[in-house]
Amino acid sequence: MLLSPADERMLAGEEGPAVRSALELLVRYGELMGAERLIDTDNVCGANLFGPRHARVLGTTDPAALFSRFSLDLDETVDVPPFRAHSCQLIGPRDRDQWDLQGIAPSDAAAMDDSERYLADKGVDLLSTCTPYQVGNVPRFGEHCAWMESSAVVYINSVLGARTNTEGRESSAASMLTGRTPYCGYHLDAHRRATHLVEVRHPVVTTEDWNVLGYWVGERVQDAVPVLTGPGLAGSAPTPVQLKQFGAAAASSGDVEMYHLPGVTPEARTVEQALAGREPAEVSVFDADARRETVASLCRTATDREVDFVMIGCPHASLEQVREVAGLLEGRRLADSTALWVFTPRALREVAERHGHVAAIEKAGGRVLSDTCPAIGQFLPPGTRVFATDSAKQAHYLPAITGVQGWFGGVRTCVTAALEGRWPDA
């Protein structure tokens, strides 16, 4: 790999052992990825807030030791200087204010407070969300980033036209320390061109529709780059929320890190431009049968209709989504047997509080949480056997992680299930 003079100095240890180890890690990673060189980045999002599971493995709650071991892959604890790149903390294992609802012990909560302070001292912005672009970190078109979190990666690559691969904890931490990332994958023009064509024949209008389409597309193309066209997309352009949900679903059933919607996403105005003059490797058709089969697949783990838990907000809900839930609950009360939790970025939760949306949800018996989600934190209301969600991503992951049954549907259907304690009959 061709290294710059600054890279060589970091590799020689002139900026300390942590930076040297970070550069070594990036070089190994880049060589495996076929990168010829590293490039500058000043926008890194990683997950370096450690919880009790990490502490038990290492036998300590010391944030410096946990960062050295799990973020830098070191056996020794090293002194870590302030991060060179603009860095953000992604979603973590707990709600900072409502950790008791998750069953977290006070000592574990205190240890996670220490971990947050450690990161803040290094210069990390504690956004604590899977959707940093909703709360201030909006990368520029063409900006080279180093982000974790599959739903955020596909969003900024596709909707914003920024450039990132799906990084891991170690590679993103190394980029925070060095301001460098391997020049490969979706940083390169050649890898951002569409490879597969999806013809959408069934109408895609609602957010539920976009979830279903995304899940179907991910299963079809896996880690390829699709371009979507067809009469089913006619009408109004998808909203940012719908694009958020579509990309998250496609990155869950497959490994989609970028897609093109000509006239909506910024890098291709036409199908031909997205394909860069090439024939697609495969053409797939999304029709009524495909939609029906995908919904059935998303509900494949569910057999019982008595719903214990309804989860809204994966990826973290926008203010509009929180407002919608509050409106559906107005003047009503959840079933005694059913919990409803809405997840949103902490910054948006504060806005939702000022608007009265949080109070409306809580008055109905629900809760609004931040900083985490059931899949990342691996927690559920006690006794949960059956849950429902408006997120294809959460319907994909939570049954596999926790062993619960899962129903998928639109937000209105999910809220109705929380009010009645039962998923509607087909």
Automatic annotation (TrEMBL):
A Pfam family annotated for this UniProt entry: AcnX
Keywords: Iron, Lyase
The keyword Iron belongs to this UniProt entry's keyword annotation: yes
Domain Phosphomevalonate dehydratase large subunit-like as annotated: residue spans: 1-415
Protein name: Aconitase X catalytic domain-containing protein
SUPFAM superfamilies from the UniProt entry: Aconitase iron-sulfur domain
Record has Amino-acid biosynthesis as a keyword: no
Gene Ontology MF term list: lyase activity
